Amino acid sequence: MQAGRICARSNISRWFLIATLLLSAVTTWSQAPPVVLEGIELIPRLKITGTVGSLFRIEFTDSVAQTNGWTTLKNVILPSNPFVFIDTNPPNFMKRFYRVTSDPRPLPMIWINPGTFTLGSPASEEDRFSDEGKQTRVTISKGFWVGQFEVTQLEYLFVTGVNPSAFPDDLTRPVETVKWKDATNYCSKLTEQDRQAGRLPSGYAYRLPTEAEWEYVARAGTDTRFSYGDDPGYTELNSYAWCGANTGDITHPVGTKLANPWGLHDVHGNVWEWCSDWYADSYGGGHIVDPVGPVTGVDRVIRGGSWKGLFRFCRSASRGSSLPLQAGDNVGFRVVLAAIAP
User: Fold this and answer.
1) pTM of the predicted model as reported, rounded to 2 decimal places
2) Which class for 314: exposed (0-12), middle (13-18), buried (19 or more C-beta within 10 A)?
3) Bigger pLDDT: 100 or 293?
4) Are residues 216 and 316 in contact, defined by beta-carbon separation less than 8 angstroms?
5) Among residues 271, 235, 236, which one has the least CA distance to residue 250?
6) HEC string of 250-310?
7) Most buried of the four, 47, 83, 272, 298, by CB within 10 Å?
8) Residue ranges of domains in the chain, CATH in brackets
9) What confidence score (pLDDT) does residue 7 get?
């Protein structure tokens, strides 16, 4: 697989099903009828063809002239081919247009070259926590792909068939309310699906990032508090993160804030992101290669801060932890595609 191909957004294949409901009635009577005809109710039926198990979005508008005026009616995982969808709540007016769009694939990924960086924060960093030390030099010895965005509800729904999120009205928001095992299961299922579809390079699989990989790509070559600078007064954070007071107490669609220098969005804020490591309350210092964290533990590492956290939690070095069986409405994940260890 060429890096240029996997880094770019793919064009979304679309199938359009336009249905127009027109109603006209002409009644002629030679004499007054014995009853009054008040109306005729028509129920729209949409016939969808496609691969069983595929995710389709059914949208509607009252005017095809307004190209941005489509509203999501329902997301359907195709149970049969063909499948008949019935709009059980048609409008009072006599015309509605429908279309059906397919799942956007594949995941947008960015290639990350090997390199060395400093994990953690210096004792002088403003608003740091003690578990961000000892600072440790880390070498990432092998390149890998990483998700440009946090996994969305649409992507999670396509792979697993469910959407556990607390804010499900917009599927471009990050999936949340997922346990650590839910995230790792998603990676396994996505690996199997993409292998069967011939989308994976030989010997590669999806997984969660290690904590070191996560900070490596979040920093993107920087050693400041954030990937864009130190920002001592948090005056620039609003341009890069859904965090603290700017969120309206909800998650937001991925990629709507500025990216870091390597093109990754939402490494600061929106939702905390699961990592593969067990949590330890300190680093070992020195210089290590490809660390994977402690062998055992109680909590798993989460990184990046969230929509309902303080600004300080969105710093590149900030760490969090959570029980693997705990699912919060501010915890999601992004994926790594990497070579399988021999």
Assistant:
1) 0.74
2) buried
3) 293
4) no
5) 271
6) CCCCCCCCCCCCCCCCCCCECCEEEEEEECCCCCCCCEEECCCCCCCCCCEEEECCCCCCC
7) 272
8) 3-102 (no CATH), 109-339 (3.90.1580.10)
9) 29
